[in-house]
Amino acid sequence: MSERRWLYRMVRTRGHLVVIACSTVHYIWATTLWLDPARCLWAGGWPPAGVCSVTPISQLSRLGPVLPWLLVGAAILALVPVMRRCTGIAVILCLMPQQVLLIVSAATVAQAMLLGRFADGVVRTSEFLTADQAWPLVMAIIHVVALLWCFLQSKYGDSRTGRIGS
User: Fold this and answer.
1) What is the pTM of this model?
2) Residue 48: φ, ψ to 5°
3) Residues 86-92: contacts with CB within 8 Å, 24+ apart?
């Protein structure tokens, strides 16, 4: 196997691993929302209680009981390009719902970092929150890169050489 082909396969696989990791997080969030004894989604109060007070999903929890279904739907849809070869626009359409959820989670975490307060009201320093909650920001950024890579590869990639562009 040529060196370029090896590099292409590594990047493509890592792009898929990002999508799989984000889907796994969304499955975990959905499961915990369904199993939460506080049933925070149906409480109707603010600030959120139970699992809904987890900072990355605190803003999303305003969607109510539909949130776990949205998380699972976005996760399943994002896995379609991983399991099947899709065209450029299909990749974007499949990954966009997951990307939107990740961006909202990242924005919620960024707000908490700037305010120095978790979603449940616990006050900490911004540095502490940055160290504790940086992963949703990183996941959103890496997911954008993976989305662009998958789109460019499916649209303009040469399957024989593994290079983008001719």
Assistant:
1) 0.77
2) -65, 155
3) 86/154, 87/154, 87/155, 88/151, 88/152, 88/154, 88/155, 88/156, 90/154, 91/147, 91/150, 91/151, 91/154, 92/147, 92/151
pLDDT per residue over 53-98, tens digit each? 788 888 888 787 888 999 999 999 999 888 877 777 787 888 899 9
Q: Give residue 70's pLDDT.
A: 94
Q: In the chain, what are the domain boundaries?
A: 3-162
Q: CA dihedral in degrees (82, 151, 25, 50; nearest 10)? A: -140
Residue 152, SS3 per DSSP: helix
Q: In 36-125, which ranges are continuous DSSP H helix?
A: 40-43, 67-83, 88-115
The alpha carbon of 135 is separated from its chain's Cα centroid by a whole number of angstroms, namely 10
